[in-house]
Specification:
Helix content is about 75%, strand content about 0%. The chain is built from 10 helices and no strands. The protein has helices at about 10-20, 25-35, 45-55, 60, 65-75, 80-95, 100-115, 120-130, 135-150, 155-170. α8 packs antiparallel against α9. It is globular, with a radius of gyration of 16 Å. About 35% of the residues are buried.
């Protein structure tokens, strides 16, 4: 992570939040950072890296409330650069099985299903379904359900997704 002086207070608050284990501390921290981005057209790289670094840290992603990081990214998704979006999707794929908080997995799946192009989201979930561990399969199940229910998939994708989803339900 490229550390800037302006991120130091947030790093300290994150360490305190992890130590306390309080969901509200993570919520407050993410809200504060998100609020600071309101006037910006693009999320600064240091802020994005702070969030991605948190998503790579199992001490954070196992906490109830870790979904706050994803909710902030969801709210400001339009302010992420194409490269940041690529890195975020890669992070979700790489860390799916280490996301110990179930709601974090739900939030990440929801973000991918609703914010990424349907074909890219479908491919992401299909890959998790086929090669992921329990956390990845859970994310694939949630994401494929969202894509199917939203009607975002084309006929070919939906035809492939339905049996894949049924298999995920049978064998979580």
């Amino acid at each position: 992570m490229s550390l800037t002086v302006s991120m130091v207070p947030y790093i300290q608050k994150l360490a305190a939040a992890v130590k306390s284990g309080k969901k509200s501390a993570l919520d407050d921290l993410c809200f504060e950072i998100e609020y600071e981005q309101l006037t910006k057209d693009v999320w600064p790289q240091a802020v994005f890296e702070f969030f991605v670094s948190a998503l790579h840290d199992t001490d954070i992603t196992s906490l109830t409330g870790a979904r706050a990081f994803v909710l902030s990214l969801y709210n400001d998704f339009d302010k992420l650069t194409a490269e940041q979006r690529r890195v975020l999707l890669q992070t979700f794929g790489a860390e799916a099985d280490s996301f110990g908080d179930e709601m974090l997995r739900h939030a990440a799946s929801d973000l991918v299903a609703r914010k990424y192009p349907p074909a890219l989201a479908f491919d992401f979930f299909a890959e998790l379904a086929g090669g992921g561990g329990p956390g990845g399969r859970h994310m694939a199940l949630v994401g494929l359900e969202l894509l199917l229910l939203s009607g975002k998939l084309d006929k070919r994708q939906a035809t492939f997704a339905e049996p894949l989803l049924a298999e995920l339900i049978r064998k979580p």
